[in-house]
Amino acid sequence: MMFLTRCLLLAVLTSTILAGCADPSTTRHELGAQSQKTLTVTDTVARCYQILGADCGLFPAAARLLTDEDGNTPPHTGRFAPTQMQVTYIEYALRTLPLQYVPTLLGQAIKPRYPALIHQNLSRYKRQYFGFYNVQRHDCLYVHFFAEPLGYTPRWLREAIQVQDGGAGFWSIKYDWTTRQFYDFEHNSEG
After folding, report:
1. For 20-75, how does the pLDDT look when each residue is reduced to its tens digit (9 = 90+)?
2. Which contacts qualify for 73-76: CB closer than 8 Å, 24 or more apart?
3. Can you give the pTM of this predicted structure?
4. Which of 28, 88, 131, 144 could make an S-S bridge to 80, C-beta 3.0–4.6 Å?
5. Which residues touch 160 (CB under 8 Å, ≥6 apart)?
6. Is residue 28 domain-resident?
7. Residue 179 within a domain
8. Is there a domain that residue 145 lies in?
């Protein structure tokens, strides 16, 4: 009897959690102008989501994507807001992901000690999640990780945090939902 009660409780909790994770606004939209009209540019504040002790900011499609040192954003054909289910999947995958084998941006050299250092401190990073459609129109996530300096807590949910230098304290990775692959692992240079 105790076992059946626990199973029933687990089933109710699971269905409640999954129902809460469903976000009807994140269904795949046509990538044309019509989907862009429904977005309000002023609505760029991230929703805060905590999973496995990690603070994650899920940015809406209208939020500005991070740029590289030359001011370029990742090549994309449109944007979407990441869902809590997507973030949960990524957060669990990151726990065992061998970062040293993830393809890097062209020309980016990864410091050999950084993957282990990043894994050791994974729970200490804040995360910013951005959804985009790559040039092949695959759903992709761009995840930016950073150590939380004082004063960034409110700001990190309003805008993409960009810092020069910082080494393993600031890094990013992308994930392609179609190929189920992480790619473009990169970290800041040491200053």
Report:
1. 333 333 333 333 333 344 444 447 889 999 998 899 999 999 988 877 655 667 78
2. 74/132, 74/134, 74/140, 74/142, 74/174, 74/184, 75/134, 75/135, 76/132, 76/133, 76/134, 76/135, 76/140
3. 0.71
4. 131
5. 59, 63, 64, 65, 66, 128, 130, 144
6. no
7. yes
8. yes
